[in-house]
Amino acid sequence: MPLELPSLPYATDALAPVISEHNLRMHHEGVHAGYLKRLNTLLETDEPTTRSLENIMGTGRGEAQACACQAWNHTFFWQCLTPWYHPPGRVLKEALAARWGSLEAFQEAFMASAMAHFMGGWTWLVYTPQGRLDIHNAADAGSPLLRGFTPLLAVDLWEHAWYVDYGNDRRKYLQKLWGIVNWPFVEQCLEDALATAEGRRNRLHA
């Protein structure tokens, strides 16, 4: 059984007008599905049902690894968006303020990093092994998992993510995305990362 395309966590028209239904369908059913289709072809003789995307990302090479990363990145990206907006919770807001001074300052820094990334790829909010929040740009199919980072928020910078709706105005795309960021999901990722780090420290001192 091949690796399958995960369903979106909302209807295809739910993110409009920030992301149009046409663009979301093209992105999910075309681009995202295309990476999985190609990956399944590459793994036809490798029993893909016994391997997760994370396993292929960590052990694969070349095109197979790139397709696995892109498939995983897209699945995570969809979870970072929501039509049911809620502002950041206390834990996340305090963590962002401790690192950048305020939520607004973080958003400015994130946008500046995304705008400075010339090629296709991704901009991420991550939790590092050193126990701090950081903004990380990844070219092409790059994934923070391969750097040992825990991803908290992803933004797709490939032109297929925004050109249909915004033409060559990447900045407008980034600005509009803040209105559909799934902050509860981002905060849950942070809380999970903090709990994992605390558990690791406790084991070291046991």
Automatic annotation (TrEMBL):
The enzyme's E.C. designation: 1.15.1.1
Alphabetical keyword list: Metal-binding, Oxidoreductase
Pfam families: Sod_Fe_C, Sod_Fe_N
Keyword set includes Methyltransferase: no
Domain of life: Bacteria
Record-annotated Manganese/iron superoxide dismutase N-terminal domain positions: 4-81
Enzyme class, broadest EC rank: oxidoreductase
Keyword Oxidoreductase among record annotations: yes
Binding-site positions, Mn(2+): H27, H74, D156, H160
Catalytic activity: 2 superoxide + 2 H(+) = H2O2 + O2
Domain Manganese/iron superoxide dismutase C-terminal per the UniProt entry, residue ranges: 91-188
Its job: Destroys radicals which are normally produced within the cells and which are toxic to biological systems.
Stated name of the protein: Superoxide dismutase
Organism field: Kushneria konosiri
Classification of source organism: Bacteria, Pseudomonadati, Pseudomonadota, Gammaproteobacteria, Oceanospirillales
